[in-house]
From TrEMBL:
InterPro entries: DUF2167_membr. Keywords: Membrane, Signal, Transmembrane, Transmembrane helix. It comes from Flavobacterium geliluteum. The keyword Signal applies. Residues 1-20 form the signal peptide. This is DUF2167 domain-containing protein. It comes from the Bacteria. The keyword Transmembrane applies. The chain crosses the membrane at residues 255-277.
C-alpha cells in the first residue's frame, strides 16, 4: 500500500513539473505572438463603407489580416473575410485572460429604415433568436464547432434615434465553457449600409465594455454625403430589413453561425488545466481512457518544429 502511494506521489510530482514547464513554454509562445503584432493609431481609412476610423484614446487599431488571425487561429472562430479590423484596449493584448476587442465590419446592403424601432417586443424577439440559435447548432456541429446557447440579453436592445445607432448585447455559452461570452453589438447606420462594431469579451468585462462605447461611437464616421440623413429616396437602395431584423440577425443569414463570435483568448490557461486533467486520467484512470491533446499543444509543436 505504501509503495503504491509512493509511486502515485512521484507521478504527481512529475506531472506537476511537466505542467510547469509546459506553462512556461506556452507563455513564451504567446509572448512571442504579442510582440509580433503591429498596432496602429490616428486616422484609419476603412476599406469599405465610405468611412474612416479615428482611433479613440485608450485603444489601438489592429488591421484586417491580424484581426482575422486572432479570431480564427487564436480564438477558434470560423473565418470571416468581411472583417475590416479591430480596436484593442491599451494595456491588453490578444492572448491573455483579460483580452477583448471591438471587431469592425461593414454591411453595404442599403439604407435601413428605423420606423419600427419603438414597436419591437424584444422579449418575444429573444425567444425567437434562442430557437434560431438552437437550429444553427446543427450547422455548427457539422463545421466542427461547439454548440452555442443564447442565455439572454446582457444589455437589452435600444435604438439611439439621434445618433442613428442600434445597441444590444447577448450573453452566450459555448459548449461546456466555464465562463460565458459577451457579444456587445453596435450598428452605426449610414446612407448605403452600416458599420458593425462588435465587442467580444467575457461577461465579467461587460461594465468595462459599456464604459468605452461613447468613445467608440465617436470614432466611426461616414464621409460627407454618406451619412444616414443624406439618404435619397429617388436613387438609393433600401435594405430588405428594419431595426428588428438587425437584432434578430436576419441580415446575417447568409453567414449563419459565423455571426456569433467566441472569445478564446483564455485558451493558454484553460488549455493547460485541461492537459493536466487529461494526464491524470491517462495515468490513474481506466485502461480504455484516452488523453486528448488541446489545440494549443499542437500549435506549440508546430512552432517548435518550424524553429528547428
Amino acid at each position: 500500500m505504501k509503495k503504491s502511494f509512493f509511486i502515485v506521489f512521484l507521478l504527481a510530482a512529475f506531472i506537476s513539473k511537466i505542467n510547469a514547464q509546459e506553462k512556461d513554454t506556452a507563455q513564451a509562445y504567446y509572448d512571442k505572438i504579442e510582440k509580433s503584432i503591429k498596432y496602429e493609431s490616428g486616422r484609419i481609412r476603412l476599406a469599405e463603407g465610405d468611412g474612416a476610423l479615428n482611433v479613440p484614446k485608450g485603444f489601438k487599431f489592429l488591421n484586417a489580416e491580424q484581426t482575422q488571425h486572432v479570431l480564427t487561429d487564436l480564438w477558434g472562430n470560423p473565418k470571416d473575410e468581411g472583417v475590416l479590423g479591430a480596436l484593442v484596449p491599451d494595456g491588453k493584448g490578444v492572448t491573455g485572460t483579460s483580452s477583448w476587442m471591438f471587431i469592425i465590419s461593414y454591411q453595404g446592403d442599403g439604407y435601413v429604415k428605423d420606423d419600427d424601432a419603438n414597436d419591437i417586443d424584444y422579449d418575444d424577439l429573444l425567444k425567437t433568436m434562442q430557437e434560431d440559435t438552437k437550429t444553427g447548432n446543427e450547422e455548427r456541429k457539422k463545421g466542427g464547432y461547439s454548440e452555442v446557447h443564447l442565455i439572454g440579453w446582457a444589455s437589452k436592445p435600444f435604438y439611439d434615434s439621434n445618433l442613428k445607432v442600434l445597441h444590444w448585447a447577448k450573453e452566450l455559452k459555448f459548449g461546456t465553457d466555464e465562463f460565458n461570452t459577451l457579444n456587445y453589438d453596435l450598428r452605426v447606420l449610414g446612407r448605403k449600409g452600416m458599420y458593425n462594431i462588435s465587442a467580444v469579451a467575457s461577461m465579467s468585462e461587460l461594465k468595462e465594455v459599456k464604459a468605452s462605447i461613447p468613445e467608440i461611437l465617436k470614432s466611426v464616421e461616414f464621409d460627407k454625403g454618406n451619412k444616414y440623413l443624406d439618404f435619397d429616396a429617388d436613387t438609393d437602395t433600401v435594405a430588405a430589413w428594419t431595426i428588428g431584423g438587425l437584432v434578430a440577425g436576419k441580415v446575417l443569414a447568409k453567414v449563419g453561425f459565423f455571426a456569433i463570435i467566441a472569445k478564446f483568448g483564455k485558451i493558454i490557461f484553460f488549455g493547460l488545466i485541461a492537459a493536466f486533467a487529461g494526464a491524470k486520467k491517462f495515468l490513474f484512470g481506466k485502461k480504455d481512457q484516452v488523453m486528448t491533446k488541446p489545440k494549443e499543444d499542437e500549435l506549440l509543436e508546430e512552432t517548435t518544429s518550424s524553429e528547428e
